[in-house]
Amino acid sequence: DKGGHKHFMAKEINEQPTVIAEAIRCYLPTGSNSVTLEGVDLDFRNVERLTMVACGTAYYACLTAKYWFEQLAGLPVEVDVASEFRYREPPMPAKSMALFVSQSGETADTLAALRYCTGKVDGILSVVNAAESSIARESDIALPIHAGVEIGVASTKAFTCQLTVLLILALKAASDRGTMDEAQIADHVAALRGLPSALNTALEQSEAIRRAALRLSEARDVLFLGRGIMYPLAMEGALKLKEISYIHAEGYPAGELKHGPIALIDKNMPVVFMTPTDALFDKTMSNMQEVMARKGKVLMISDAAGLSAGGNDLWNSIAMPEIHASLTPILYALPAQLLAYHTAVAKGTDVDQPRNLAKSVTVE
Ligand code: M6R
Fold this sequence. Notes:
By secondary structure, the chain is an alpha/beta fold.
């Protein structure tokens, strides 16, 4: 049942405010300002390193969470794609914990990476959608994301629910390790409770995004740029677009522009900037100017202040509500997903069943 939508992907994109509210309700019971995770036997106090491993979109969720664990909890994090990690067989230092992220809980490479870590680390955590899966079963602690069944091959609501649970875990780590005081934690918890309503506001941009996508659908290649915590989302935006519209797309840290990709910029090249007005905004703006000076087509996704700084020469823009700095990757995932969705619809590709892809990759 597509719930009145043309595709499961559209339905699942639109479900995000509801499923994320549910995930928040499960991990942060109403009325509480702290992150205690009742019933979860987890303590980050003596952990010296966290290793996160996953594939595809779940890998980008891990890369995003690295910023949270490092910045909020002062915990060193290593992130790897499962197919590399499992064959590299890296040494696991004492006092490490390993965390595996998987929607299906059955991804062969992620499961093999988990098995490699068994017995070598102090704890195996997983963040899964399928609570009855192999990855959940073989973990010491499996944390469900409460996204509900995801049918579209392109992961959407699972990604943002993974991010939500990973942020809550990072707050738990910060609380255990004393890197944030009660007021700072309460501030994040309050911001999280406001997230579903901001996601609804973002979904209202669907029609504006559809218009931008009509123009994007004519491109051969698209570049996605972001800095800091928006860099993994740039890669996720590019992955979504290539998976379902078959347009070649790359996600890059904006600061890497000068080190190669700027050679691609000409009047035919759309460049999507994911730039909330955060601490790195001015740095990203100067990259945007470099793209504009070479006649690249800038599509800027930002809040009102950011868009006004972007000026009148933008090829296209998508407005997002203002939000707490830690939550920008979750909020900005929605326009990235909608952009890929509407572009694929404009091109007439098979949105829910893109060619050559399977929902669950249980073989190598
Ligand atoms: O089930 P998993 O989360 O372990 O799957 C990992 C990837 O195969 C998956 O995220 C894939 O990249 C999606 N098609 C992305 O949209």
